[in-house]
Amino acid sequence: MMSGIEGKVIAITGASSGIGEATALLLAERGAKVVLAARRSDRIEALAARITEAGGEAVPVVTDVKRREDLSRLVATARERYGKLDVLVSNAGISPISALDDLRVEDWEEMVDVNIKGVLYGIAEALPVFREQGFGHFVHTLSTAGLVIVPKMSVYAGTKNAVRAISEGLRQEAGEALRVTTISPGFTETELAHSITDPDAKSQIQDSMAKIAMPPNAIARAIAFAIEQPSGVDVGEIVVRPTAQS
């Protein structure tokens, strides 16, 4: 059974900052060939250059996870450049949280499009490739917001729990050859608060992050742990919280 990270081809969405960026750096340091996906071309090009200069291998692919064709191009790029795809880390996500009474329907729709449909598009593009190869690993970034539901986070939590259910169904359908892992981070130093349109909710989240947030590398290490296991070992779910988080 194959194990470890060295030599694996790993595509990461949301790679331009936060958890995605930290994961790309850590996996590349451990010998993975990383395919960096995000909308901000300048960010992923700079990250790819940084990895390459450090002796690693990386290729940037401008990707909007709301567009299935972008996920298709991401998977195709990995295969064309490196001949395979071992892991798809679906990490891109947004959290424009607000009270339901505010009726920020456009924010709800955006969360569904990015947080749920973006993951489904990744599955749609990578699953046939994994079947053809006879190996593959899906890693989906969720949130502890889906474990403890609190006011203003109901829609965001709903999107994360939808992906939790989809991931469990995928795991059961995957068979012996494929692996599925979900990672649920607690408060982490990321740019997630930037997508919040409600000023009070944004301030509250930023204050909590400033007080107790973990560095994104903590989540990157959890992702690396799941990936490095032998191929017959499937790490189903990892929850990582700051010790100060209730």
TrEMBL record:
Which SUPFAM superfamilies is this protein grouped with? Answer: NAD(P)-binding Rossmann-fold domains (SSF51735)
**Presence of keyword Acetylation:** no
Q: Which domain of life is it from?
A: Bacteria
Task: Give the UniProt keywords, A-Z.
Answer: Oxidoreductase
Entry GO MF terms: oxidoreductase activity, acting on the CH-OH group of donors, NAD or NADP as acceptor
PANTHER family for this protein: DEHYDROGENASE/REDUCTASE SDR FAMILY MEMBER 11, DEHYDROGENASE_REDUCTASE SDR FAMILY MEMBER 11
Family of this protein: Belongs to the short-chain dehydrogenases/reductases (SDR) family.
Name of the protein described by the UniProt record: NADP-dependent 3-hydroxy acid dehydrogenase YdfG
